[in-house]
Amino acid sequence: MLTGEIIAVTSGKGGVGKSTVSVNLALSLARLGKQVALIDLDIYGFSVPKILNLTSKPKTMNGKIIPVESYGVKVMSMGFLVKGNDPIVWRGPMLGKIVEHFAKDVIWGELDYVILDLPPGTGDVALDLHHLIPNSKEIIVTTPHPAATHVAERAGTMALKTKHEILGIVENMSYFTPPNSEEQYFLFGKGGGDQLAQELHSEVIARLPIEEPNTSILTPSVYEPGSLLYDHYMTLGKTVDSLVKAPC
User: Fold this and answer.
1) Could you report the per-residue pLDDT of 83-128, keeping only the tens digit for each?
2) Comparing C-alpha atoms, which of 88, 49, 84 is closest to residue 67?
3) Helix, strand or coil for residue 237?
4) In angstroms, rounded to a whole number, what is the distance separating the alpha carbons of residues 37 and 75?
5) How far apart are CA 237 and CA 228, in angstroms?
6) Side-chain half-sphere exposure of 117, counting CA atoms within 13 A
7) Given this model, what pLDDT does residue 158 score?
8) Which of 96, 107, 182, 212 lies 20 to 30 angstroms, CA to CA, from 4?
9) Measured CA distances, 168 to 25, 145, 171, 198, 212 (Å)
């Protein structure tokens, strides 16, 4: 069973970096000394194993699953249960079963945080999550672009209608700063995160810049010490931890 604070990371549309945010938020919390699980519930578009360059599979013990561990984080993903990069061809009821399977049939141990990487939008998995884990909090990921914030508002509105607390908005790809420069270029526009926060009565808790991935390592979307985004994600982890601990 899942213990600890459960935080669902979602977005209105794909391509805004939701899974990268989920992974690096989980890692930042682990670096802060927290016991963290990361569950990839983006059933059709799972990418967490690829981001973390995981090739090992979960083991089983007494009919229960032992999650894979990476960077000190316990990880489960649909990607561990399929062959290669085969597509998932399932209808709605099966999606709910995998949410329940990951919640109840995995040996998680005691946890401080569970980060759920949800599929974009307001489909079956989000509905099942709200039913099965009604105490989860949510982070909405968007870019500053109006199209991204427009559809992200729907995901946030769904969270509010199901009485889930929105911890805040993460504006990804906020700006780009060239090397050896302090100039900021707003490639996807400006102010989208603030507009979304206003619509959802929330706040922007991170503005993450665009940083070129380090392709010389096996996990280019995992940001290590010395990179610009490492510091941003550590700040995000501390912000999330303080928001969760803050009195209502």
Assistant:
1) 665 555 445 556 667 778 888 899 999 999 999 998 887 656 666 6
2) 49
3) helix
4) 6
5) 15
6) 30
7) 86
8) 96
9) 13, 17, 10, 11, 25
- The region that residue 136 occupies, defined by phi over 0 for left and psi between -120 and 50 for alpha, beta otherwise, is beta
- Residue 149 in 3-state DSSP? helix
How do residues 191-233 score in pLDDT, each as one tens digit? Answer: 999 999 999 999 999 999 999 888 888 899 999 999 999 999 9
Residue 100, helix vs strand vs coil: helix
What's the structural domain count of the chain?
A: 1
Q: What is the mean pLDDT of residues 133-146?
A: 90
SS3 category, 146: helix
Question: Which residues lie across from 210 on neighbouring strands?
Answer: 176
Q: Which domain holds residue 46?
A: 5-245
Do 196 and 157 touch, CB atoms closer than 8 A? no
Residue 129, φ and ψ in degrees, nearest 5: -60, -45
Residue 204 in contact with residue 55, Cβ under 8 Å? no
Token pair 């999650």 is found at: 67
Q: Confirm if 179 and 123 have CB atoms less than 8 A apart.
A: no
Distance separating alpha carbons of residues 86 and 100, to the nearest angstrom: 22
What's the rounded Cα separation, in Å, for the pair 195 and 198? 5
CATH of the domain at 10: 3.40.50.300
- Chain centroid to Cα 10, Å, comes to 7
Write out the DSSP string of 211-227: ----TTSS-TTSPPTTS
CA atoms within a 13 Å half-sphere pointing along the CA-CB vector of 153? 16
22 exposed, middle or buried (CB, 10 Å; 0-12, 13-18, 19+)? buried
